[in-house]
Design goal:
The protein has about 180 residues and is an all-alpha fold. It contains ten helices and no strands. The termini are far apart.
Length: about 180
C-alpha cells in the first residue's frame, strides 16, 4: 500500500468509516502479526495483540503525522504493544518454550532460509535483537532506517546486527 493509499484509508478511519480500517487490515494484518509474534513467541497471544492493534489504530488514527512513513509507524506501535504485553505478564519464557513455539510456527524466516537444520540451532545462533531485525527486514520489508526507529537503535547498529545475523545463518547452513 502506498503512502497516499494509506492516508486515504486512515482519513476514512478518522471520519468513522470502518471500510478504511478493513483496507489497512488486509494490507498489514500479516505484517503486524509477524512483528508481534517475533516478540511474543506465542501464536494465540500474537493473534490477540494483532486484533488489539487494529482496535487501537481505530482509536489513535488521528495521531498519525501525514506524510511520514506509515509502515514504520505501524511497526513501532505493534512492537511497543508486544513489549508492553511481555512486561504486563512479567513471566520468563524458558528456552525450551521458545524453541517449541518456533517449531509450531510454519513458514518462519529461519525455516525458509535454513531448511536443512533444526529451528533450535538457528535460535541458538541468533541473539534476540538480531532475530527481531532480520524479521522486520525480511518479513516486514522495512528499511534499516525504519527498523532503527522501531527498535530505538542507531541505524548503523541495525545494519551491523543484520549483517552479523545473516552471517550466522550462512554459517549454520554450512555446518
Amino acid at each position: 500500500m502506498t503512502e497516499a493509499e494509506f492516508e486515504i484509508h486512515l482519513r476514512a478511519i478518522i471520519d468513522g468509516d470502518k471500510e478504511g480500517l478493513h483496507h489497512i487490515y488486509r494490507a498489514y494484518g500479516a505484517y503486524i502479526y509477524a512483528i508481534v509474534y517475533d516478540v511474543i513467541k506465542n501464536k494465540e497471544d500474537a493473534e490477540d495483540i494483532t486484533a488489539e492493534f487494529f482496535i487501537k489504530l481505530w482509536k489513535i488514527a488521528n495521531k498519525y503525522t501525514f506524510g511520514k512513513r506509515h509502515r514504520a509507524w505501524l511497526g513501532k506501535i505493534a512492537h511497543n504493544m508486544a513489549i508492553d504485553y511481555i512486561r504486563s505478564k512479567k513471566e520468563h519464557v524458558s528456552y525450551e518454550e521458545i524453541v517449541e513455539n518456533e517449531k509450531i510456527g510454519q513458514g518462519s524466516f529461519e525455516e525458509q532460509v535454513i531448511s536443512d537444520i533444526s529451528v533450535k540451532e538457528v535460535v541458538e545462533s541468533l541473539e534476540c535483537e538480531e532475530k527481531e531485525i532480520v524479521t522486520l527486514k525480511v518479513l516486514g520489508q522495512l528499511t534499516f532506517r525504519e527498523i532503527a526507529e522501531i527498535i530505538k537503535r542507531p541505524m548503523g547498529t541495525v545494519t551491523w546486527k543484520y549483517k552479523q545475523a545473516m552471517e550466522k545463518l550462512r554459517r549454520c547452513r554450512l555446518s
